[in-house]
Write a structure and sequence with these properties.
By secondary structure, the protein is of the alpha/beta class. It has helices at 12-24, 46-51, 63-69, 130-146, 163-178, 207-217, 313-332, 375-394; strands at residues 4-8, 30-35, 39-41, 60-62, 73-76, 79-83, 88-91, 95-97, 100-103, 108-109, 149-155, 185-190, 221-223, 228-231, 235-238, 243-245, 248-252, 255-256, 288-290, 344-349, 354-360, 368-374. Strand 15 and strand 16 form a beta hairpin. The chain is globular. The two termini are 40 Å apart. The relative contact order is 0.15.
């Protein structure tokens, strides 16, 4: 019997779920992608856009023709409410029914949690879209043109996507050194983590010491276990009363999963992330799968300040393939595979050098941990971005990546 599979989202999770499903299922099964965006953005390169080192056109891919050429329907719409009891989803434009659902809607940025936070009505900048990256670029250029200032890069309480603040702090240092202006600027990293390189998972061995040495050599001040209380045009204020001068601040907020899933008992947690079993299926609604940022992953350890668990693009793509295989097993029969023992691969860039790490599994204790730092890692990330985008545009063999 023909099944209707609805995929919500068209980024790493949604796009690769749909492509994998089409490979695994016959054309008698209908696959529809509903997404607010018709463009796939290579998110790991947004810091380079903010630095002016990458043209946005280089990291964008229009998904519509690619999906439709593979027999996948695409609808551009924003999902506003899920109704799992009736197997339907309501968007701003239409209602969509399904037999199986893949939730890959990514995140909603919680700028409202802290007074003055955010680029639209607040006093800080962010980096989770091309628009935000370009706004950050323009603001940073204005401050640099003045010849001196205080630059703050921050992860707020509850934040989980922690890498961009590190990358932006180090890349800005590199940029200012090239201009012979580094001695005129104070750069600070403020984070919710208990130590550098915790990254919401208890760290990655020596990576903490690598980061501490890197920051010390670059004269980047760092503060850990931090909560923000407000951001004003003049200052970034921390819990406890400390204030940092705010000539420019790029601040990573906490995430919601999606308000479309909030308040549905058994489907999501209080932040709108979808609860899933070891096969990435919701325990109550077994025809709903979750991948990427939409998936609820409880923090493995308690920290003085809340720190979320990151979901990198590489992890998300792996989840997408697992969810697709398990849906195919539900429909066609066969064994399902576990989807929560994630391996992570991550490349963090500093503009002139970088840090590579891979960990299996994501959470300690691990079977394998590899980390490398140096100039080669920077060029590795550059090369990977170019290959990854070419693989989307020209249907080249895939490879995996990390943030």
């Amino acid at each position: 019997m023909s099944k209707r599979i609805l995929v919500l989202g068209s980024s790493f999770g949604g796009y690769h779920s749909a492509i994998s499903l089409r490979k695994l299922l016959g054309k008698e099964h209908h696959i529809k992608v509903v997404s607010a965006e018709d463009i796939f953005t290579f998110v790991p390169s947004l810091p380079w856009v903010a630095m002016g080192w990458r043209n946005p056109s280089a990291i964008k891919f229009h998904v519509v023709d690619s999906l439709r050429s593979k027999g996948i329907e695409f609808v551009q719409d924003t999902v506003v409410k899920a109704d799992p009891d009736n197997c339907s989803v309501t968007g701003e434009k239409d209602e969509y029914e399904y037999d199986y659902l893949v939730a890959a809607t990514g995140s909603e940025l919680d700028f409202a949690a802290i007074p003055g936070l955010g680029p639209d009505i607040g006093n800080s900048y962010s980096i989770f879209s091309i628009k935000q990256a370009l706004e950050s670029k323009a603001a940073l250029e204005r401050v640099i043109a003045k010849g001196s200032g205080s630059l703050v890069f921050c992860n707020t309480q509850g934040a989980s996507c922690l890498g961009p603040a590190y990358e932006m702090a180090m890349m800005t240092d590199t940029h200012l050194r090239r201009k012979q202006l580094r001695n005129k600027f104070k750069i600070s990293l403020v984070t919710n983590e208990p130590y550098l390189g915790h990254f919401g998972v208890g760290g990655f061995g020596k990576v903490t010491r690598i980061l501490e040495d890197e920051f010390a050599d670059r004269d980047i001040e760092w503060k850990v276990n931090c909560k923000l209380t407000q951001v004003t045009p003049e200052e970034v204020e921390l819990d406890g009363g400390e204030k940092l001068k705010n000539d420019f601040s790029l601040i990573v907020p906490a995430f919601y999963g999606s308000h479309a899933y909030l308040g549905i008992e058994g489907l999501s947690n209080p932040r709108g992330f979808i609860i899933a079993d070891d096969y990435l299926a919701n325990p109550k609604y077994q025809n709903i799968y979750s991948v990427g940022v939409s998936l609820a992953i409880p923090p493995p350890v308690q920290t003085p300040v809340p720190v979320g668990v990151p979901k990198t693009g590489q992890m998300t793509e792996t989840m997408a393939e697992i969810a697709a295989q398990n849906i195919a097993a539900d429909i066609k029969g066969g064994s399902k595979i576990h989807g929560k023992e994630f391996e992570v691969v991550c490349i963090s860039d500093a503009g002139d050098t970088g840090i590579y790490l891979s960990a299996s599994p994501l959470l300690p204790p691990r079977n394998k941990l590899v980390h490398v730092n140096g100039k080669t890692v920077h060029w590795m990330k550059v090369a990977f971005e170019k290959y990854y985008m070419a693989s989307l545009r020209y249907n080249l063999p895939k490879t995996h990546f990390g943030w």
